[in-house]
Specification:
With 434 residues, the protein is an all-alpha fold. It has a domain at 324-434: Alpha Horseshoe (Serine Threonine Protein Phosphatase 5, Tetratricopeptide repeat), CATH 1.25.40. The protein has helices at 2-28, 33-40, 46-64, 70-86, 89-105, 111-123, 127-140, 144-158, 161-170, 177-189, 193-210, 213-229, 233-246, 251-264, 268-281, 286-297, 301-317, 325-332, 339-352, 356-368, 372-382, 390-402, 409-417, 420-423, 428-432. The longest helix is centred in the first third of the chain and has 27 residues, at 2-28. The radius of gyration is 24 Å and the shape is globular.
Length: 434
Protein backbone atom coordinates (compact mmCIF):
# COMPACT_ATOMS: atom_id res chain seq x y z
CA UNK A 1 0.00 0.00 0.00
CA UNK A 2 2.77 2.35 0.96
CA UNK A 3 4.54 1.63 -2.34
CA UNK A 4 1.35 2.35 -4.28
CA UNK A 5 0.97 5.69 -2.50
CA UNK A 6 4.54 6.62 -3.42
CA UNK A 7 3.95 5.68 -7.08
CA UNK A 8 0.76 7.74 -7.14
CA UNK A 9 2.58 10.69 -5.61
CA UNK A 10 5.36 10.43 -8.22
CA UNK A 11 2.78 10.27 -11.01
CA UNK A 12 0.99 13.31 -9.62
CA UNK A 13 4.28 15.21 -9.67
CA UNK A 14 5.51 13.92 -13.04
CA UNK A 15 2.32 14.05 -15.13
CA UNK A 16 1.75 17.83 -14.74
CA UNK A 17 5.44 18.37 -15.56
CA UNK A 18 5.18 16.26 -18.72
CA UNK A 19 1.89 17.92 -19.65
CA UNK A 20 3.44 21.33 -19.09
CA UNK A 21 6.38 20.46 -21.33
CA UNK A 22 4.10 19.13 -24.06
CA UNK A 23 1.93 22.21 -23.88
CA UNK A 24 4.99 24.45 -24.08
CA UNK A 25 6.35 22.55 -27.07
CA UNK A 26 2.97 22.63 -28.81
CA UNK A 27 2.60 26.39 -28.29
CA UNK A 28 6.05 26.87 -29.76
CA UNK A 29 5.18 24.80 -32.84
CA UNK A 30 4.47 26.84 -35.96
CA UNK A 31 5.73 24.82 -38.90
CA UNK A 32 3.94 21.76 -40.22
CA UNK A 33 5.89 19.51 -42.53
CA UNK A 34 2.74 18.79 -44.52
CA UNK A 35 2.67 22.48 -45.50
CA UNK A 36 6.06 22.42 -47.23
CA UNK A 37 6.87 18.74 -47.81
CA UNK A 38 5.87 18.94 -51.47
CA UNK A 39 8.41 21.72 -52.04
CA UNK A 40 11.20 19.56 -50.64
CA UNK A 41 10.33 16.85 -53.13
CA UNK A 42 10.33 19.08 -56.23
CA UNK A 43 13.07 17.86 -58.56
CA UNK A 44 12.26 19.54 -61.85
CA UNK A 45 12.91 23.26 -61.93
CA UNK A 46 10.99 24.65 -64.90
CA UNK A 47 12.42 28.12 -64.38
CA UNK A 48 15.94 26.72 -64.58
CA UNK A 49 15.09 24.75 -67.70
CA UNK A 50 13.59 27.85 -69.33
CA UNK A 51 16.66 29.94 -68.56
CA UNK A 52 18.99 27.32 -70.04
CA UNK A 53 16.86 27.26 -73.19
CA UNK A 54 17.01 31.06 -73.38
CA UNK A 55 20.79 31.03 -73.02
CA UNK A 56 21.13 28.46 -75.79
CA UNK A 57 18.75 30.43 -78.02
CA UNK A 58 20.44 33.82 -77.59
CA UNK A 59 23.94 32.39 -77.77
CA UNK A 60 23.05 30.82 -81.13
CA UNK A 61 21.66 34.15 -82.35
CA UNK A 62 24.76 36.03 -81.22
CA UNK A 63 27.12 33.49 -82.81
CA UNK A 64 25.26 34.00 -86.08
CA UNK A 65 25.26 37.80 -85.78
CA UNK A 66 28.11 38.95 -83.47
CA UNK A 67 27.52 42.57 -84.45
CA UNK A 68 24.19 42.52 -82.55
CA UNK A 69 25.45 43.83 -79.21
CA UNK A 70 21.99 43.79 -77.65
CA UNK A 71 22.19 39.98 -77.63
CA UNK A 72 25.05 40.25 -75.14
CA UNK A 73 22.83 42.17 -72.73
CA UNK A 74 20.05 39.59 -73.01
CA UNK A 75 22.52 36.75 -72.44
CA UNK A 76 23.96 38.53 -69.41
CA UNK A 77 20.50 38.91 -67.86
CA UNK A 78 19.89 35.17 -68.25
CA UNK A 79 23.19 34.29 -66.56
CA UNK A 80 22.27 36.68 -63.73
CA UNK A 81 18.97 34.83 -63.30
CA UNK A 82 20.88 31.55 -63.34
CA UNK A 83 23.07 32.81 -60.49
CA UNK A 84 20.00 33.68 -58.42
CA UNK A 85 18.66 30.15 -58.78
CA UNK A 86 21.81 27.99 -58.57
CA UNK A 87 24.08 30.26 -56.54
CA UNK A 88 27.07 29.53 -58.78
CA UNK A 89 29.48 32.48 -58.76
CA UNK A 90 30.72 31.48 -62.23
CA UNK A 91 27.36 32.50 -63.72
CA UNK A 92 27.69 35.94 -62.16
CA UNK A 93 31.15 36.32 -63.66
CA UNK A 94 29.86 35.24 -67.08
CA UNK A 95 27.19 37.93 -66.86
CA UNK A 96 29.83 40.51 -65.89
CA UNK A 97 32.04 39.57 -68.85
CA UNK A 98 29.15 39.86 -71.32
CA UNK A 99 28.07 43.23 -69.91
CA UNK A 100 31.58 44.67 -70.05
CA UNK A 101 31.85 43.53 -73.66
CA UNK A 102 28.51 45.17 -74.46
CA UNK A 103 29.58 48.34 -72.67
CA UNK A 104 32.70 48.50 -74.81
CA UNK A 105 30.68 48.03 -78.00
CA UNK A 106 28.36 50.87 -76.96
CA UNK A 107 31.41 53.03 -76.15
CA UNK A 108 30.15 53.36 -72.55
CA UNK A 109 27.25 55.49 -73.77
CA UNK A 110 24.36 53.29 -72.67
CA UNK A 111 23.05 54.05 -69.17
CA UNK A 112 21.07 50.78 -69.06
CA UNK A 113 24.29 48.79 -69.46
CA UNK A 114 25.96 50.83 -66.71
CA UNK A 115 23.04 50.03 -64.40
CA UNK A 116 23.25 46.34 -65.31
CA UNK A 117 26.99 46.29 -64.54
CA UNK A 118 26.30 48.09 -61.25
CA UNK A 119 23.67 45.49 -60.36
CA UNK A 120 26.18 42.73 -61.05
CA UNK A 121 28.82 44.44 -58.91
CA UNK A 122 26.35 44.89 -56.06
CA UNK A 123 25.87 41.11 -56.07
CA UNK A 124 29.65 40.74 -55.94
CA UNK A 125 29.92 43.31 -53.08
CA UNK A 126 32.01 45.56 -55.33
CA UNK A 127 30.09 48.63 -54.24
CA UNK A 128 32.57 51.35 -55.16
CA UNK A 129 32.80 50.01 -58.71
CA UNK A 130 28.99 49.84 -58.81
CA UNK A 131 28.87 53.49 -57.77
CA UNK A 132 31.28 54.45 -60.55
CA UNK A 133 28.99 52.92 -63.20
CA UNK A 134 25.88 54.49 -61.68
CA UNK A 135 27.54 57.90 -61.76
CA UNK A 136 28.22 57.36 -65.46
CA UNK A 137 24.58 56.36 -65.97
CA UNK A 138 23.50 59.49 -64.10
CA UNK A 139 25.54 61.71 -66.41
CA UNK A 140 24.05 60.06 -69.49
CA UNK A 141 20.63 60.92 -68.08
CA UNK A 142 18.40 58.19 -69.56
CA UNK A 143 15.98 56.69 -66.97
CA UNK A 144 17.28 58.89 -64.18
CA UNK A 145 14.65 57.47 -61.82
CA UNK A 146 16.03 53.95 -62.26
CA UNK A 147 19.55 55.21 -61.67
CA UNK A 148 18.53 57.10 -58.52
CA UNK A 149 16.90 53.97 -57.10
CA UNK A 150 20.12 52.04 -57.54
CA UNK A 151 22.20 54.93 -56.20
CA UNK A 152 20.15 54.76 -53.00
CA UNK A 153 20.98 51.04 -52.74
CA UNK A 154 24.70 51.59 -53.23
CA UNK A 155 24.92 54.59 -50.90
CA UNK A 156 23.29 52.48 -48.18
CA UNK A 157 25.88 49.74 -48.72
CA UNK A 158 28.71 52.28 -48.61
CA UNK A 159 27.44 53.94 -45.44
CA UNK A 160 26.82 57.24 -47.26
CA UNK A 161 23.52 57.74 -45.49
CA UNK A 162 23.07 61.45 -46.23
CA UNK A 163 23.44 60.76 -49.96
CA UNK A 164 21.08 57.80 -49.65
CA UNK A 165 18.46 60.04 -47.99
CA UNK A 166 18.77 62.52 -50.87
CA UNK A 167 18.15 59.77 -53.41
CA UNK A 168 15.22 58.44 -51.40
CA UNK A 169 13.66 61.90 -51.59
CA UNK A 170 14.39 62.06 -55.32
CA UNK A 171 12.46 58.83 -56.00
CA UNK A 172 9.58 59.59 -53.63
CA UNK A 173 6.35 58.29 -55.10
CA UNK A 174 3.91 57.12 -52.38
CA UNK A 175 2.38 54.37 -54.54
CA UNK A 176 5.56 53.14 -56.21
CA UNK A 177 6.68 49.61 -55.30
CA UNK A 178 10.39 50.39 -55.70
CA UNK A 179 10.13 53.50 -53.52
CA UNK A 180 8.21 51.69 -50.77
CA UNK A 181 10.68 48.80 -50.43
CA UNK A 182 13.53 51.30 -50.20
CA UNK A 183 11.63 53.35 -47.65
CA UNK A 184 11.28 50.11 -45.67
CA UNK A 185 15.02 49.56 -45.86
CA UNK A 186 15.68 53.12 -44.71
CA UNK A 187 13.40 52.83 -41.69
CA UNK A 188 14.83 49.43 -40.79
CA UNK A 189 18.29 51.01 -40.88
CA UNK A 190 17.07 53.68 -38.44
CA UNK A 191 15.69 50.99 -36.12
CA UNK A 192 12.03 51.77 -36.82
CA UNK A 193 10.86 48.26 -37.68
CA UNK A 194 7.13 49.00 -37.38
CA UNK A 195 7.29 51.75 -40.02
CA UNK A 196 9.50 49.55 -42.19
CA UNK A 197 6.90 46.77 -42.06
CA UNK A 198 4.12 49.26 -42.85
CA UNK A 199 5.97 50.27 -46.03
CA UNK A 200 6.53 46.65 -46.99
CA UNK A 201 2.84 45.89 -46.51
CA UNK A 202 1.93 48.75 -48.88
CA UNK A 203 4.37 47.32 -51.43
CA UNK A 204 2.79 43.91 -50.93
CA UNK A 205 -0.67 45.28 -51.79
CA UNK A 206 0.71 46.81 -54.99
CA UNK A 207 2.30 43.52 -56.05
CA UNK A 208 -0.93 41.63 -55.37
CA UNK A 209 -3.17 44.22 -57.05
CA UNK A 210 -0.98 44.08 -60.16
CA UNK A 211 -0.77 40.27 -59.83
CA UNK A 212 2.92 40.61 -60.68
CA UNK A 213 4.48 37.20 -60.00
CA UNK A 214 8.07 38.48 -59.76
CA UNK A 215 7.17 41.27 -57.34
CA UNK A 216 5.02 38.93 -55.25
CA UNK A 217 7.88 36.43 -54.88
CA UNK A 218 10.25 39.20 -53.84
CA UNK A 219 7.94 40.92 -51.36
CA UNK A 220 6.53 37.71 -49.84
CA UNK A 221 10.00 36.38 -49.04
CA UNK A 222 11.32 39.69 -47.74
CA UNK A 223 8.28 40.52 -45.64
CA UNK A 224 8.70 37.03 -44.18
CA UNK A 225 12.07 38.22 -42.88
CA UNK A 226 10.67 41.48 -41.52
CA UNK A 227 7.88 39.70 -39.67
CA UNK A 228 10.43 37.33 -38.17
CA UNK A 229 12.53 40.25 -36.91
CA UNK A 230 9.38 41.69 -35.31
CA UNK A 231 8.66 38.40 -33.53
CA UNK A 232 5.63 37.69 -35.71
CA UNK A 233 6.75 34.16 -36.48
CA UNK A 234 3.33 32.92 -37.60
CA UNK A 235 3.16 35.68 -40.21
CA UNK A 236 6.75 35.02 -41.24
CA UNK A 237 5.96 31.33 -41.85
CA UNK A 238 2.76 32.21 -43.73
CA UNK A 239 4.62 34.41 -46.20
CA UNK A 240 7.44 31.95 -46.75
CA UNK A 241 4.74 29.44 -47.73
CA UNK A 242 3.12 32.03 -50.03
CA UNK A 243 6.53 32.52 -51.65
CA UNK A 244 6.76 28.78 -52.31
CA UNK A 245 3.24 28.75 -53.76
CA UNK A 246 4.46 31.24 -56.37
CA UNK A 247 7.90 29.64 -56.84
CA UNK A 248 8.09 25.94 -55.90
CA UNK A 249 11.90 26.00 -55.93
CA UNK A 250 12.45 29.15 -53.87
CA UNK A 251 15.39 28.22 -51.67
CA UNK A 252 15.30 31.56 -49.82
CA UNK A 253 11.83 30.75 -48.43
CA UNK A 254 12.89 27.20 -47.56
CA UNK A 255 15.86 28.59 -45.68
CA UNK A 256 13.48 30.91 -43.81
CA UNK A 257 11.35 27.95 -42.74
CA UNK A 258 14.49 26.08 -41.68
CA UNK A 259 15.42 29.04 -39.48
CA UNK A 260 11.97 29.01 -37.84
CA UNK A 261 12.42 25.28 -37.14
CA UNK A 262 15.85 25.85 -35.64
CA UNK A 263 15.62 29.17 -33.84
CA UNK A 264 12.00 29.34 -32.76
CA UNK A 265 10.97 25.70 -32.43
CA UNK A 266 14.43 24.48 -31.39
CA UNK A 267 14.11 21.57 -33.79
CA UNK A 268 17.57 21.28 -35.37
CA UNK A 269 16.83 17.92 -37.01
CA UNK A 270 13.91 19.34 -38.98
CA UNK A 271 15.96 22.41 -39.92
CA UNK A 272 18.79 20.23 -41.22
CA UNK A 273 16.40 18.17 -43.31
CA UNK A 274 15.31 21.35 -45.10
CA UNK A 275 18.88 22.65 -45.44
CA UNK A 276 20.06 19.37 -46.96
CA UNK A 277 17.37 19.77 -49.61
CA UNK A 278 18.50 23.34 -50.33
CA UNK A 279 22.09 22.11 -50.59
CA UNK A 280 21.16 19.90 -53.54
CA UNK A 281 19.59 22.84 -55.41
CA UNK A 282 21.40 26.01 -54.43
CA UNK A 283 24.99 25.53 -53.34
CA UNK A 284 26.30 28.62 -51.54
CA UNK A 285 29.08 28.70 -48.91
CA UNK A 286 27.06 30.35 -46.11
CA UNK A 287 24.68 27.38 -46.07
CA UNK A 288 27.47 25.45 -44.35
CA UNK A 289 27.87 28.16 -41.74
CA UNK A 290 24.21 27.65 -40.87
CA UNK A 291 24.87 23.91 -40.61
CA UNK A 292 27.83 24.70 -38.34
CA UNK A 293 25.65 26.91 -36.14
CA UNK A 294 23.08 24.14 -35.79
CA UNK A 295 25.82 21.62 -34.96
CA UNK A 296 27.18 24.00 -32.30
CA UNK A 297 23.71 24.20 -30.75
CA UNK A 298 23.59 20.37 -30.74
CA UNK A 299 27.06 20.35 -29.16
CA UNK A 300 28.23 18.22 -32.07
CA UNK A 301 31.84 19.34 -32.50
CA UNK A 302 32.53 16.84 -35.30
CA UNK A 303 29.69 18.08 -37.53
CA UNK A 304 30.47 21.70 -36.72
CA UNK A 305 34.11 21.29 -37.80
CA UNK A 306 33.00 19.36 -40.89
CA UNK A 307 30.61 22.11 -41.96
CA UNK A 308 33.22 24.85 -41.51
CA UNK A 309 35.75 22.75 -43.42
CA UNK A 310 33.30 22.42 -46.34
CA UNK A 311 32.67 26.19 -46.23
CA UNK A 312 36.40 26.89 -46.48
CA UNK A 313 36.84 24.33 -49.27
CA UNK A 314 34.12 25.97 -51.38
CA UNK A 315 35.72 29.38 -50.89
CA UNK A 316 39.12 27.96 -51.83
CA UNK A 317 37.80 26.36 -55.02
CA UNK A 318 35.98 29.48 -56.28
CA UNK A 319 36.93 33.14 -56.40
CA UNK A 320 34.24 34.90 -54.38
CA UNK A 321 36.18 38.13 -54.09
CA UNK A 322 34.98 40.11 -51.07
CA UNK A 323 31.53 38.53 -50.86
CA UNK A 324 32.29 36.49 -47.75
CA UNK A 325 34.60 38.88 -45.89
CA UNK A 326 32.13 39.38 -43.05
CA UNK A 327 31.76 35.65 -42.41
CA UNK A 328 35.50 35.08 -42.69
CA UNK A 329 36.29 37.78 -40.12
CA UNK A 330 33.80 36.35 -37.62
CA UNK A 331 35.20 32.83 -38.10
CA UNK A 332 38.84 33.85 -37.93
CA UNK A 333 38.31 36.07 -34.89
CA UNK A 334 37.40 32.95 -32.90
CA UNK A 335 40.79 31.34 -33.63
CA UNK A 336 43.79 32.94 -31.85
CA UNK A 337 46.19 32.10 -34.70
CA UNK A 338 43.92 33.74 -37.30
CA UNK A 339 42.92 36.97 -35.54
CA UNK A 340 45.61 39.00 -37.31
CA UNK A 341 44.19 37.84 -40.63
CA UNK A 342 40.72 38.77 -39.38
CA UNK A 343 41.97 42.30 -38.60
CA UNK A 344 43.36 42.72 -42.11
CA UNK A 345 40.10 41.63 -43.73
CA UNK A 346 38.10 43.88 -41.41
CA UNK A 347 40.26 46.86 -42.37
CA UNK A 348 39.76 45.97 -46.03
CA UNK A 349 36.00 45.91 -45.47
CA UNK A 350 36.19 49.42 -44.02
CA UNK A 351 38.04 50.55 -47.15
CA UNK A 352 35.37 48.89 -49.29
CA UNK A 353 32.38 50.11 -47.29
CA UNK A 354 32.89 52.22 -44.14
CA UNK A 355 29.60 51.20 -42.52
CA UNK A 356 28.86 50.43 -38.84
CA UNK A 357 28.82 46.76 -39.89
CA UNK A 358 32.42 46.97 -41.13
CA UNK A 359 33.61 48.84 -38.02
CA UNK A 360 31.89 46.20 -35.91
CA UNK A 361 34.08 43.55 -37.55
CA UNK A 362 37.19 45.57 -36.72
CA UNK A 363 36.13 46.18 -33.12
CA UNK A 364 35.25 42.51 -32.60
CA UNK A 365 38.63 41.41 -33.97
CA UNK A 366 40.47 43.76 -31.57
CA UNK A 367 38.28 42.52 -28.73
CA UNK A 368 39.20 38.92 -29.54
CA UNK A 369 42.95 39.60 -29.28
CA UNK A 370 42.45 41.28 -25.92
CA UNK A 371 42.66 44.91 -27.05
CA UNK A 372 39.40 45.79 -25.30
CA UNK A 373 40.17 49.51 -24.99
CA UNK A 374 40.80 49.78 -28.73
CA UNK A 375 37.58 47.88 -29.39
CA UNK A 376 35.69 50.24 -27.06
CA UNK A 377 37.08 53.29 -28.83
CA UNK A 378 35.82 51.96 -32.19
CA UNK A 379 32.29 51.06 -31.05
CA UNK A 380 31.78 54.34 -29.21
CA UNK A 381 32.68 56.24 -32.37
CA UNK A 382 31.23 54.07 -35.13
CA UNK A 383 28.63 51.49 -34.01
CA UNK A 384 26.75 52.35 -30.79
CA UNK A 385 23.53 54.11 -31.78
CA UNK A 386 24.47 53.87 -35.45
CA UNK A 387 23.28 50.34 -36.15
CA UNK A 388 20.41 48.36 -34.64
CA UNK A 389 21.48 44.99 -36.06
CA UNK A 390 21.21 42.50 -33.15
CA UNK A 391 24.63 40.94 -33.84
CA UNK A 392 26.28 44.36 -33.66
CA UNK A 393 24.36 45.26 -30.49
CA UNK A 394 25.54 41.97 -28.96
CA UNK A 395 29.18 42.72 -29.83
CA UNK A 396 28.77 46.22 -28.39
CA UNK A 397 27.45 44.76 -25.13
CA UNK A 398 30.30 42.24 -24.79
CA UNK A 399 32.91 44.95 -25.40
CA UNK A 400 31.24 47.32 -22.91
CA UNK A 401 31.14 44.52 -20.33
CA UNK A 402 34.87 43.85 -20.81
CA UNK A 403 35.52 47.54 -20.16
CA UNK A 404 33.35 47.55 -17.00
CA UNK A 405 30.73 49.86 -18.52
CA UNK A 406 27.89 47.80 -17.08
CA UNK A 407 25.36 50.64 -16.76
CA UNK A 408 25.17 50.93 -20.55
CA UNK A 409 24.52 47.21 -21.04
CA UNK A 410 21.07 46.94 -19.38
CA UNK A 411 19.01 48.48 -22.23
CA UNK A 412 21.06 46.53 -24.77
CA UNK A 413 20.44 43.27 -22.90
CA UNK A 414 16.70 43.88 -22.92
CA UNK A 415 16.82 44.53 -26.66
CA UNK A 416 18.92 41.43 -27.27
CA UNK A 417 16.65 39.14 -25.26
CA UNK A 418 13.82 40.31 -27.50
CA UNK A 419 15.97 39.42 -30.54
CA UNK A 420 16.91 35.84 -29.60
CA UNK A 421 14.94 34.47 -32.55
CA UNK A 422 16.94 36.60 -34.99
CA UNK A 423 20.28 35.93 -33.27
CA UNK A 424 19.76 32.20 -32.90
CA UNK A 425 19.54 29.94 -29.83
CA UNK A 426 23.30 29.46 -29.48
CA UNK A 427 23.69 33.02 -28.18
CA UNK A 428 20.86 32.90 -25.63
CA UNK A 429 22.96 31.83 -22.63
CA UNK A 430 25.71 34.35 -23.51
CA UNK A 431 23.17 37.18 -23.65
CA UNK A 432 21.64 36.17 -20.32
CA UNK A 433 25.14 36.29 -18.80
CA UNK A 434 25.89 39.84 -19.98
Amino acid sequence: MKTNKIIKLILLLVIPFVFSNCTSKKSNQITNKEDYKAYLEVNDNKKLQDINKEIEFWQTKFDAAPNQSSYLITLASQYSRLFEIKGSIDDLYKAEKLLLEANEKFVEQNSGIHRAIARNYISQHRFKEALSHLEKAEKLGENRMGTNKMLFDVYMELGSYDSAKEKLTAIQLPNDFDYLIRLAKWNDHKGDLDTAISSMEKALKIAENENNKGLKIWVYSNIGDFYGHAGRIDDSYKYYLKTLEEDNNNTYALKGIAWISFSHERNPEQALEIINTIESKHLVPDLYLLKAEIAEFQNNKVEEAKAIKTYNEILASHDYGDMYNKYNVLLMAEKPLQVDAALKIAQKEIENRPTPESYDLLAWSYFKIGEKEKALEIIEKYTIGKSFEPNIVYHNAEILKANNKTAEIAPMKKELLASIYELGPSLESKIKNL
